[in-house]
Amino acid sequence: MPIPASGNIKTIPLSDILEDLRQRRATGTLTIRRGEIEKGIHVKDGQIIFATSTDARDRLADSLVRAGKITLENLAHALQLYKKHAGLKKMGAILVESGLLPPKELFSGLKIQVKDIIFSLFLWPDGAYRFDKQLPSDIIQLQINFSELITEIIARMRKDA
Fold first, then answer.
1. Beta-carbon neighbour count of residue 145 at 10 Å?
2. Predicted model pTM
3. Is residue 150, in this structure, part of any structural domain at all?
C-alpha cells in the first residue's frame, strides 16, 4: 500500500516514507515541518540528491567546521565576504572562490551537510510531512547512496544512544 503524500512521521516512520519514495522511483521534495523548522529531502528517480533546512544549525559552513573541512577563522573570513556580497553569493561559492576550500571538498562537505540534515530528522519524535512532485531549480544534485545512508544513520543513532 503506498504511503500518503502527507501525514506525520509520528505515525508513519521517516524510513518507511523514504523507502516508499525509493521503490516508486519518485521525483520531488519531501518536506517535514516541526514548529518553525522546515527540512526538505529532495529525491530524483527515488534517489536522495539533496537536503535543505531552515535550522541555523544545519548551515553548510557549520557542517564544514564540525567535519574539520574549514577552521573557525576560515568561517569568520567567509562570513565577512558573504556580508560584503549582501548574500547574493552562496557560502559554498565564496569558500571555493576565496581559496578557503577546494571544489572537491565543497562537494564532500555538501554530502556531510545533507546526511546531517537527514540524520537530524530521524531524531524528531514527530513532524508534519508532505511530498510534492517538484524539485527546486537551484539545488546541486549529489549522489547519496540510500543503503549506505541508512547504515550510517543506524550507526550514529547507536553511538549517540
1. 11
2. 0.87
3. no
Residues, the chain: 161
Q: What domain count does the chain have?
A: 1
pLDDT band at 70 (very low <50, low <70, confident <90, very high): very high
| CB 133, CB 26: distance < 8 Å | yes
Is residue 151 situated within a structural domain? no
pLDDT tens string 129-140: 999 999 998 888
At a CB cut-off of 8 Å and minimum separation 6, what does 28 contact?
A: 42, 43, 131, 132, 133, 134, 135
Instruction: At 101, list the grid cell.
Output: 576550500
Cell readout for 38 is 522546515
Q: Say which amino acid occupies 19.
A: E
Tell me how crowded residue 92 is: count the other CB atoms within 10 A of its CB: 20
User: 520531488: which residue's cell?
Assistant: 28
Cβ partners under 8 Å of residue 17, min gap 6:
3, 9, 30, 129, 131
Read off φ and ψ for residue 150, nearest 5 degrees: -65, -40
